[in-house]
Amino acid sequence: MAIHELKPSPGEYSYVFGGVAPRLSVKPGDIVKVSTEDCFGGRVTHQDQLPSEVVPFSELNPVSGPIEVAGAEVGDLLAVHFVSIVPARSTAISSTFPHFGALTPTHETAMLAAPLEERVWFYDLDLDSGTATFRARRSDHTLRLPLDPMHGTVGVAPAGGETRLVVTPSTYGGNMDTPEVRAGATLYLPVNVPGALLSIGDGHARQGEGEVCGTGLECAMNTVIAIDLVKGGAPAWPRIESDDFIMTTGSTRPLEDAYRISQKELVDWTSDLTGLDTLDAYQLVSQLGLAPAANVCDPNYTMVAKLPTWALGAAKAYGGVHQRLRAAAEAYLTR
Amino acid sequence: MAIHELKPSPGEYSYVFGGVAPRLSVKPGDIVKVSTEDCFGGRVTHQDQLPSEVVPFSELNPVSGPIEVAGAEVGDLLAVHFVSIVPARSTAISSTFPHFGALTPTHETAMLAAPLEERVWFYDLDLDSGTATFRARRSDHTLRLPLDPMHGTVGVAPAGGETRLVVTPSTYGGNMDTPEVRAGATLYLPVNVPGALLSIGDGHARQGEGEVCGTGLECAMNTVIAIDLVKGGAPAWPRIESDDFIMTTGSTRPLEDAYRISQKELVDWTSDLTGLDTLDAYQLVSQLGLAPAANVCDPNYTMVAKLPTWALGAAKAYGGVHQRLRAAAEAYLTR
Amino acid sequence: MAIHELKPSPGEYSYVFGGVAPRLSVKPGDIVKVSTEDCFGGRVTHQDQLPSEVVPFSELNPVSGPIEVAGAEVGDLLAVHFVSIVPARSTAISSTFPHFGALTPTHETAMLAAPLEERVWFYDLDLDSGTATFRARRSDHTLRLPLDPMHGTVGVAPAGGETRLVVTPSTYGGNMDTPEVRAGATLYLPVNVPGALLSIGDGHARQGEGEVCGTGLECAMNTVIAIDLVKGGAPAWPRIESDDFIMTTGSTRPLEDAYRISQKELVDWTSDLTGLDTLDAYQLVSQLGLAPAANVCDPNYTMVAKLPTWALGAAKAYGGVHQRLRAAAEAYLTR
Amino acid sequence: MAIHELKPSPGEYSYVFGGVAPRLSVKPGDIVKVSTEDCFGGRVTHQDQLPSEVVPFSELNPVSGPIEVAGAEVGDLLAVHFVSIVPARSTAISSTFPHFGALTPTHETAMLAAPLEERVWFYDLDLDSGTATFRARRSDHTLRLPLDPMHGTVGVAPAGGETRLVVTPSTYGGNMDTPEVRAGATLYLPVNVPGALLSIGDGHARQGEGEVCGTGLECAMNTVIAIDLVKGGAPAWPRIESDDFIMTTGSTRPLEDAYRISQKELVDWTSDLTGLDTLDAYQLVSQLGLAPAANVCDPNYTMVAKLPTWALGAAKAYGGVHQRLRAAAEAYLTR
Fold it and tell me: How far is A78 from chain D (nearest CA, A)?
């Protein structure tokens, strides 16, 4: 097990999945310490700056990577376990953004009505107490929110030779913006090109489900991941596993189609893991499943489907790779 | 405080919201013991019966009521607190249903492809252990699921003189099919006609979020509700309050519009309760809110938006009606 | 063949489909001269009035009727042929309306952004030249548009005992807002209650496809219809026939589901009329069909699917009822 | 004016927009004779072959190009006039395709229900009579359909360094699948990279609006285009001009958002051309506009919005470039 470090300098971030040469090569079983920038590339430095004036749309969400994984072949499954995700600055930033977010006209839900005002919020982060302080901009209201650090954007090179802007989530992962990608979770991504070419960014100190205003508590992160590879058997869409849940994702529009994808994926996975026939698995997921929104603001919307692992009995997904990575993470953290 | 009983005989169920004479009159502060039938009207009695053959579509989801609430006027807010919801039979039933559910062609997502097979599952309920036993139909797999009884369908007479089939959720409540309508929760419904005309049905011993196959653990229920009335100030859409969350709902299609409604309602409610301006409240909801699907199978889809009550400080919704009803429920249960 | 007249006085309009006693009884083969009010109930009388201030939402779109058709039974098909549709006033009115229209936040596509300005346009109608004159409100621009009178709202009582506000289009017809319901066309509606209970309103001197701002050239109309009845064989959704096209409709959300319904209906109808198997009919519709939007602003969106009648060979829909009604109309007009 | 020829040999087709080196360089004002393959790459040669077995999904829709246009810079508008589009073979092919088309479960409208049967239809083309003969596969039914040749896929390199599979329509054009891209029309595309990098493919001998089964009369084409460049002023989305209509497009999901984009674009264009303020232009488009579906089967759906050019008075789009290209085409054809 090697420990690598990926600390991009300002000019070394990527803005697309696919079509970029690897910046680091690792082996399955390795650990990588990754530094990520915030979604504004660190360019928003005070509350009265408007993000739309300092960051071009195509430079939102810089990602660190790509990381090439030795031996990863098309059709394999890349397992990315999040060992730790720690805010790298003492402030996180959130904002509305013109034509972005679920409750304002956007480029795709195009309207003649004017978009919402652009406004910025700075949150002070306190790692000791594990809180971020919300300060209202039009009153003196403040509130401490619990930190729950996560990465909004984690993905690999797309299939078919595509190169995609990092803001779009799809089959290759990308900007799914689900709080489920937190420390302790394993993200499974299908490998579409040799080496997989993993990139990571868009850390949030926390976010609500749906990311309704379009941003979370955007924050540079010091993150540690453990990487593994499952040969063959890649699913069509990204999956997530925590100690308590298996989770599937679907990213498309309209939102019910994202829901359909995530639910069908969960039914199929449940069927695979339990031996239930498809309709029996459909029944079980219908009664036990959870279905939170991830994002309803990005170019594709993302829904997550969750089934508690206790419902699977002794079955372990992908030969227990999550449990092995969990143990490796534990060993790393207590080394 | 009077205690009423509403036990419809077989011919006394309703199949619509609106346009039905009240079967019971109560006063704010009263308690009502309500018996409800399962969504199949009790007509599915063994696993090899097909629901579509024994229940006409327009007789699905019979509801008990309407209950007239004295003094309720247009624009008021009806508060319905669920004191207890207890399965009335020892079995619950779930099924796929032709052209119903999220992963099959339906009447509205119309396709030339054939619909999924219709299949029925019977669950044994054990109130002592608080479990329902899932038994696969194509294998010997069984699994005990925790009971979490709820009502899928609770609503009042619609506005504008409309009469709506009970299967449709909308501004008047109806078939929202959210597991959040469980014992301990207060459902807030806008009053559209004098007396409000509340009806209740569609008990589920439990269901997953989204009710993806189209049915939960359908079950007749013995339910106790406590009713109160808030004069004026009715919101546009149903809201829910539990000890831990304020919740809003939106029911329409596509699913992102149901999400938009629920989120806008939550932003507005948060702004009302905290004094935050709209964009500050939008920011807070964006970072703290939860957004589970309720149903993605009914004629309108329902999304729920949730904010933890700790974020509201000392503010109490509607003058603390939930807390008062909670106390009344406690008093009733321990009487 | 009797000729009837239905001229409601101001208090005699209806605002719902279903739940209203018939105001006229006719027989299949009869002709009815119907007066209809404009969608604002005639209350907007000059350009500086705001419709939202003079007309409550539930009183938009008054309809004339219901008309009871003798012998119409559940499952029959009501054929409503439009003999003539003539503007009854010399002006037509259009407007934006707060939270209505496709390019502004609405009650269902709910947003925090402000809705568009409400503005009214009056058009002078000239029946001799067949034109309506558009006059811009913020400049001197004028343009003569060809008249193409139609009814946006034509429907029968819904199934299942429902009563629906007239603004909603659905399986019973209603506010489909398609320009295809013009003189010379036959509208086919499924009969859901004895007597069918037909109502008509919402005349437009013309409208674009999609009715994007939410209103057409709203106009009171003097309309003549010829009514017939086809026993049995009612389709699930309204259909339209002109001399040149058979047309089907679907009204729901999202718009692709309205499209799916209309296309499936057209495939099924084509298969019925030609004897083609379903996939062969699907192929033919795919290559020859037209698919214009009707409305993308009402509570349900409506899509129309069209197939040219020449593609059907000698086949006549419903035993040639359109051709017979066309001849009856001719006889009436030249009598 | 130079006349170029682009006849790719089998290995020279592209499958993506963006990221491909130009195969031909031309100047504004030049004419290009382009050969295009059918969407199956010519590999389906008889009716009993299943396209899904002979063509991998990522090799559907080969395009000819890219063509580099000298002087084209980011923000310019590329005008592509279709001088002639002539079927290159005597047969066209259509098919259903597993998980593709509007009336079957797909990868994005994911379901557990089985997809429709895959079936292939061969059409004999007769250029003299201008017809294609439909032959049913399950009966002896035949029908002659008028030819109306068009290109489903025409686009340029995307912005932001993206590379996209040709099957997806978006802001850069691509697989919009609208019958409006026929001989006599000018397609306007925004230039996103120096040289624009235009590619063309997916000829259809004809198709219906919406392309409901997922394919048109797929056919290799001999096509002649005339190219021009308008400096600056590129719109956000592709536009089309014919002698009779200005047209705008929107490509996204759900279909109402594609409609919204196309309608907003048409309002803005109408405002630019006539000097009407935005709401006056909205009003005019609402009353005069047409709104046909283009495709409701591709990864993004496409809607078209059309306004008759007579409504624009003397105004000419982009300084009359369509009229000039039309004249050049005439000169070329009668040379």
Answer: 22
